[in-house]
Known about the structure:
The protein is an alpha+beta fold. The protein has helices at 5-10, 12-19, 43-48, 60-69; strands spanning 2-4, 24-28, 31-36.
Amino acid sequence: MVATATEFKTKFGKCLEMIAKEDIFITCNGKMIAKVVNLQVSAVDSLRGMLKDVPSDIDTDSLREERLSKYENHV
């Protein structure tokens, strides 16, 4: 949801209800100035939507080894 700073201020109670369902982006003079998020939503829950198309048979161990190997020579 996008709300102007004025709307956010005047409809604060309604905005609090909305934060339970979605993030609120606050604008001022047409520019994005803030993002209000629900603290109860974990990072894992937030990532689920992004990762929904990742195959379930992916080998996470090999991905981890590949990622860590990039830093082996930098220690």
